[in-house]
């Protein structure tokens, strides 16, 4: 028998259950390792059972009537003609201290229930461990759901990947096939992806390892979309259902009744988890009334084909293992186009309704909860959008993507949302003058402001304004005036923008739209600021803040506090600015508002730079750049590069700072955007400093070279500069105990627990500003750019 990998925690839990119950049933998906776990538990309990451990393999049986006979044969019980087998078994076992493992009960479940009940009632010292894809359902039974092997998370380093149980099993079985996996980081990444895509199911991993005899791991991973054709050729000594991945799942499918099969097939349209309400909306149909979906779903959970998890708050969530989902999707397609299209349409309809219900809450009370709820459903939302893209009627897709407008921005998915909206708007059937189209154009223009598509945003606003005015939709008119004004503001045309803002502001006030009024006041504040009226800008920002508080829009409360702080930087009121900016960033982090974090880290970096804390500023600029890169936000990428140039990023010298200035200026020129006054003054001053330090000719050469760099080249060079500057100290080095102060370690421990800055301040009895400074110092000392990276460093070094 091959080696047993991992499962120490599971072994301990099951041994504890066996110690407290006479019937423990190990359930779980096919191939998850129930039999191997049962055998290991039995082996470890051998010395504690006076009359031994007995293993009964029920898999070969097709006649339930042979279950008791098979157990009698294993236990050596002599059967007498005419005497009931169960009666003979109970009498023979009597008071003996036995542990009997009943393996593979699911296909003869009723007979196993009858046997177990008789033995437990009549044999006081007997204990049973059963393995089955569903529980026996007997009083006193303790059910243990055997999980898949642990898989590494996406993004784990090579050491963490090789240490995971699933990858250890894959590597062990590959080595036994004579094809050991390479030990480098690239091989680890591929192995981790294979294990995740196969759900950490041991049988699937063993079949995958066998395939490595004829193809490299990277090719195997690329072909897992056809896993049922690929993963064949299991051990010839194994059961037929263990020799291919399809046979493994076929076995479970054949044990389902028609209703369960219909529900499982329909559930394959979900991407990621789903709630009971979603399942009822999607799986109900002509053959399965909605009232019966819960019962079938419960049966599928019992039979280990659907996983259930209690979230602790809010509705529980269900999910299908990816292998089961692939199989069920094939079964759904086999039912014909009507059934498959109907399930996908019902899925799209459910998530369209959810998105439209969420939309008003995303700018008001309950904002945080709805953002989190949409986070949980993002996979399903994406699946619904994909279905909509294939629909000849673009209206449902337009409504879905438009309803998510605030979510796309807050969670840093503006580029994705823009792509979806543009695809729907470009569809031939979407052309026309409907309000649905105009609302989608307003949403797209808002998102394009984040990604730098100002020309397209302008065209969308102009077309949609004509539609909205003709329809008399004043709220939409005000929204579009806001969007059109921002295009002008980005291009330095504040005089042209102000009349549009004033018209929109009049409409929003008359309509009593607090949130929209606040947004237009924010635009006017910016226009006033770049025109040189800092007092007027601060007044509008303060009024906008009041409207956002009235609306309950905490995302924009944070944005407006950041705007106030930014305005305060111009006259040099750094302390007041730092307070507003730190509060704004704390709100953004608490709400996981990535757009707010993107701008907040940059603006607070400016405050720290102006306050003389260049190291703290550099860490904040680096975090802003990292977010801008991942979010595809070209404008903020340029500003972050300016910040890093100001702080002599990585100590790379004046030549590299000159290049960063060049790259930033070219990025803004490509966008057709005018640099904001404060950043413009700081950049001009810094470029003059560099000219004096380097000489005009050398500066101009480096600056020109920077203007030719594309984003990928800039990020690549920054990465090399980071490496040259040195990594954070590792565990065991002389630096680990001294690099951070005791108070910084206290802060880092609470960051690792997921606490926000205000929560850390309350826990440590510090001001929020002090907490922020401690965190900035931590990032600077460790040469890291995010809270998550700092927390990971603390765990890795063993300091927290």
Mean model confidence by pLDDT: 88
What fraction of the residues are assigned to beta strands by DSSP?
Answer: under 5%
What's the helix count? Answer: 41
Alpha-beta content class: mainly alpha
Question: Sheet with the most strands?
Answer: 5 strands, parallel
**Tertiary shape:** elongated
What is the helical fraction, as a range of percent?
Answer: 55-70%
Distance between the termini: 40 Å
**What is the β-strand count?**
7
Rg (CA only): 32 Å
What spatial order of strands do you see in the largest sheet?
Answer: 2-3-4-1-5
pLDDT < 50 runs, ≥5 residues: 722-738
Helix and strand layout, with pairings?
Elements: H1 8-20, E1 23-27, H2 34-44, E2 53-57, H3 67-75, H4 85-93, E3 98-103, H5 109-122, E4 126-131, E5 142-145, H6 158-163, H7 165-176, H8 185-197, H9 202-211, H10 217-222, H11 227-230, H12 245-254, H13 258-267, H14 276-283, H15 290-302, E6 307-309, E7 317-319, H16 322-334, H17 337-358, H18 367-376, H19 378-389, H20 395-403, H21 405-410, H22 414-426, H23 435-451, H24 454-471, H25 474-490, H26 494-511, H27 514-530, H28 534-551, H29 554-569, H30 574-590, H31 594-610, H32 614-631, H33 634-646, H34 654-671, H35 677-694, H36 696-707, H37 711-725, H38 742-752, H39 757-764, H40 768-782, H41 787-797
Parallel strand pairs: 1-4, 1-5, 2-3, 3-4
Antiparallel strand pairs: 6-7
């Amino acid at each position: 028998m091959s080696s047993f990998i991992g499962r120490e925690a599971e072994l301990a839990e099951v041994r504890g259950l066996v110690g407290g119950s006479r019937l423990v049933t190990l359930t779980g998906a096919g191939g998850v390792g129930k039999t191997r776990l049962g055998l290991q538990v039995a082996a470890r309990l051998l010395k504690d059972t006076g009359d031994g451990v007995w293993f009964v393999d029920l898999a070969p049986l097709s006649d339930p009537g042979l279950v008791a006979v098979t157990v009698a044969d294993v236990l050596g019980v002599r059967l007498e003609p005419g005497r009931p087998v169960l009666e003979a078994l109970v009498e023979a076992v009597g008071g003996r201290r036995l542990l009997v493992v009943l393996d593979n009960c699911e296909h003869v479940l009723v007979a196993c229930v009858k046997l177990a009940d008789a033995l437990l009632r009549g044999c006081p010292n007997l204990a049973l461990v059963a393995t089955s894809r569903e529980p026996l359902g007997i009083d006193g039974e303790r059910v243990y759901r055997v999980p898949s092997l642990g898989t590494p998370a996406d993004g784990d380093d090579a050491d963490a990947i090789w240490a995971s149980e699933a990858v250890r099993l894959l590597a062990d079985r590959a080595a036994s096939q004579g094809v050991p996996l390479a030990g480098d980081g690239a091989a680890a990444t591929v192995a981790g992806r294979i294990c995740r895509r196969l759900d950490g199911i041991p049988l699937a991993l063993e079949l995958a390892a066998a395939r490595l005899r004829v193809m490299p791991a990277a090719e195997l991973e690329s072909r897992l979309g056809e896993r049922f054709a690929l993963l064949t050729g299991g051990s010839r000594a194994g059961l037929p259902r263990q020799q291919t991945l399809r046979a493994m799942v076929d076995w479970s499918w054949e044990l389902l009744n028609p209703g369960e099969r219909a529900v499982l097939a329909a559930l394959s349209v979900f991407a990621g988890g789903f709630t009971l309400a979603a399942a009822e909306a999607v799986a109900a149909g002509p053959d399965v009334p909605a009232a019966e979906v819960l019962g079938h779903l419960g049966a599928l959970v019992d039979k280990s084909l659907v996983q259930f998890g209690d979230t602790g708050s809010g509705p529980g969530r269900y999910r299908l293992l990816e292998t089961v989902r692939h199989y069920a999707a094939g079964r759904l397609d086999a039912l014909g186009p009507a059934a498959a299209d109907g399930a996908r349409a019902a899925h799209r309809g459910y998530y369209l309704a959810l998105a439209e219900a969420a939309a008003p809450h995303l700018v008001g009370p309950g904002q945080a909860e709805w953002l989190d709820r949409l986070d949980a459903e993002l996979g399903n939302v994406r699946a619904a959008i994909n279905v909509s893209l294939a629909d000849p009627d673009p209206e449902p897709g337009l409504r879905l993507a438009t309803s998510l407008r605030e979510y796309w921005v807050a969670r840093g998915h503006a580029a994705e949302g823009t792509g979806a909206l543009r695809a729907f708007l470009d569809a031939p059937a979407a052309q026309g003058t409907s309000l649905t189209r105009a609302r989608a154009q307003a949403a797209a223009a808002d998102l394009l402001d984040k990604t730098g598509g100002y020309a397209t945003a302008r065209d969308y606003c102009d077309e949609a304004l004509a539609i909205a005015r003709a329809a008399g939709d004043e709220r939409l008119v005000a929204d579009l005036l806001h969007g059109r004004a921002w295009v002008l503001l980005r291009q330095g045309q504040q005089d042209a923008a102000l009349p549009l803002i004033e018209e929109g502001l009049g409409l929003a006030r008359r309509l009593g739209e607090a949130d929209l009024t606040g947004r237009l006041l924010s635009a006017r504040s910016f226009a006033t600021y770049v025109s040189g009226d800092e007092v007027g800008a601060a007044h509008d920002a303060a009024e906008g803040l009041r409207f956002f508080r009235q609306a309950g829009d905490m995302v924009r409360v944070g944005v407006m506090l950041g705007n106030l702080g930014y305005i305060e930087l111009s006259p040099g009121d750094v302390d007041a600015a730092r307070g507003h900016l730190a509060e704004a960033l704390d709100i953004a982090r608490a709400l996981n508002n990535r757009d707010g974090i993107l701008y907040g880290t940059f603006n607070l970096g400016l405050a720290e730079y102006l306050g003389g804390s260049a190291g703290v500023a550099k860490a904040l600029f680096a975090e802003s750049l990292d977010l801008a890169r991942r979010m595809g936000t070209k404008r903020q990428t340029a500003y972050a590069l300016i910040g890093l140039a100001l702080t002599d990023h990585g100590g790379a010298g004046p030549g590299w700072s000159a290049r960063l200035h060049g790259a930033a200026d070219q990025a803004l020129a490509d966008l057709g955007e005018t640099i904001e006054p404060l950043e413009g003054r700081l950049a001009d001053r810094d470029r003059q400093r560099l000219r004096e330090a380097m000489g005009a000719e050398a500066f101009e050469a480096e600056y020109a070279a920077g203007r030719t760099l594309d984003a990928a080249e800039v990020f690549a060079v920054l990465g090399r500069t980071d490496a040259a500057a040195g990594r954070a100290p590792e565990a065991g080095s002389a630096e680990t105990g001294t690099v951070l102060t005791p108070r910084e370690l206290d802060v880092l421990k609470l960051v690792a627990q997921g606490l926000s800055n205000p929560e850390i301040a309350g826990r440590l009895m510090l001001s929020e500003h002090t907490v922020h400074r401690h965190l900035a110092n931590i990032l600077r000392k460790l040469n890291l750019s995010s809270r998550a990276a700092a927390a990971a460093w603390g765990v890795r070094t063993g300091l927290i």
